[in-house]
Amino acid sequence: MARSATPSFVTELPLKVDSRQERELSARFQAARQLYNACLNEALVRMNLVKNCESFKKAKKLRGGTKKEKQDLFNQARKQYRFSEFDLGSFATATANNSKWIKEKLGAHEKINMGVRAFKAVDKVLFGIAKNVRFKPTSRFKSVESKTNATGITVKFEQTRNPKKFDKKDYRNSITCSARASIEVVWGKLTINPVVDWTNPVLLHGIKSPVKYCRIVWRILNGKRRWYIQLVNEGLPFQKPTNFVKNGTIGLDLNISNVAFVGDEYAGLLPFAEKVPTYEREIKALQQKMQRSMRMHNPDNFEPDFDKQVGNKLVKKKGKVKKGAKKWKRTKSYIKTRGKKAELERRKSAYSKSQNRKLVNDILRHGNRIKTERVSVKGWQKRYGKAISGKSPGFFQAELARKAESAGGKFIKFSTQTTALSQTHLDGSRIKKKLSERVHRDVTGVQPMHRDLFSASAG
Q1: pLDDT per residue over 251-273, tens digit each?
Q2: How buried is residue 367: exposed, middle or buried, by Cβ count under 10 Å (0-12/13-18/19+)?
Q3: How many CA atoms lie within 13 A of 250 on its CB side?
Q4: For 391-407, what is each residue's pLDDT tens digit?
Q5: Positive or negative: CA dihedral 379, 384, 386, 392
Q6: How far apart are CA 321 and CA 266, in angstroms?
Q7: 449 near 439, Cβ under 8 Å?
Q8: What residues form DSSP beta bridges with 321?
Q9: Residue pLDDT, tens place only, 51-110
Q10: Which residues partner with 231 through β-bridges?
Q11: How far apart are CA 225 and CA 405, in angstroms?
């Protein structure tokens, strides 16, 4: 059954899970993970057969033919070796039914979805969109979803009755529930109650909207696993009155640590992820502690320490990890320290995303047609590394493009080599300048301005 093409948004609710329910959820996720890995292996086998068949090779070499002829050859190769969503879904169902344990833990829709999920991952490799696929260990398999809200993972609730009319202008005071809904997450014989903040208008909007299907996910917070239910709702997400989108054109210039934008009525130079804690000292101390623990309890996996002459001093250097070292002993203290470091990294990432989303909303208030240069954020990551780890310019750019297009606007990129906005003056002449020169002084004599703001206004 094909999913609806109507717009969707996600409403996430935390789940109240006791020890018995957590054991059952962990067992079901383990069954789903093993089934997914089996489907992934089968999909790789079928993909290799498709790549080596004559129809696929002929389609790859076809130059003068029409697009339909090439597509027919690809479809012929897929059909010959049963490489499709339907076939992998059928394989997943048959594999699960042959295992009594997996058959008991998963429903029909979850089994099919594991096959479809494996097919989509391998299909990207077939057409060069991805380089490889990853088999999932326990720590990386974090979600299971159903196909509809009728069977499998479902949410059942009574519609809330509000005595007042829903008004976005005063959304915090307008929503008062006279009768709070009774909500339950049902997965087979397992029933779990979510935690609902009845004063949150965003959650209430999701509860009132039709549910397409549900997804259960888990995350590690403060060293403990927390479970959530995600309702994939039909329709548009709730929009706060302050986060309106204005029709207009904005020139954008992306930098490592800030973004310059120029709209029809307003311009600004705003920093990425302002006031985000980096936890550099704390993370560095934890990394050193983890390294000491690994060297102390795994001495055979490291080369011996050595002395190195640095200037006039003789410095003692630590030995590198031996090639081929596979068996590692990780103590309880090491695992606890690793969890603390992961929690700090998670907090830093969450703060950064929150601030960058706020920045996106601020820019969209001045226009939804974005024009910017095509820059390589991956190149920045390789060159500057930690300098932009807490800034996330790539996430900001992706989020801005998504929200602008969702609001009926556009996100237009153009080449930096042909335009060179920061080096081109108003009379059309092009004069190179160093990266350290942050002020643009135009040859026409106009007032000097910040280099990034000039590039944004020229875009």
Answers
A1: 888 888 888 888 878 778 888 88
A2: buried
A3: 29
A4: 888 888 889 888 888 88
A5: negative
A6: 55
A7: yes
A8: 302
A9: 999 888 888 888 766 788 888 888 898 999 999 999 999 999 999 999 999 999 999 999
A10: 11, 214
A11: 35
Report pTM.
0.81
What φ, ψ does residue 369 adopt, rounded to 5°? Answer: -110, 100
What is the token pair recorded at 134? 């990853």
H helix runs in 99-239, sequence order: 100-105, 108-126, 171-174, 201-208
CB 206 within 8 Å of CB 231:
yes
Whole-Å CA distances, 90 to 98, 116, 389: 12, 9, 42
332-364 and 280-297 helices cross at what angle (nearest 10)? 150
Residue found under tokens 């309880």: 332
Distances (CA, A) of 386 to 55, 227, 381, 382, 390: 47, 31, 8, 9, 7
Beta carbons of 59 and 126 less than 8 angstroms apart: no
CA angle at 43 for the pair 150 and 137, rounded to the nearest 5°: 75
Token representation of residue 122: 């391998």
Among candidates 162, 201, 202, 167, which has minimal Cα distance to 181?
A: 162
Contact between 155 and 214 (Cβ < 8 Å): yes
For range 434-447, the mean pLDDT: 63
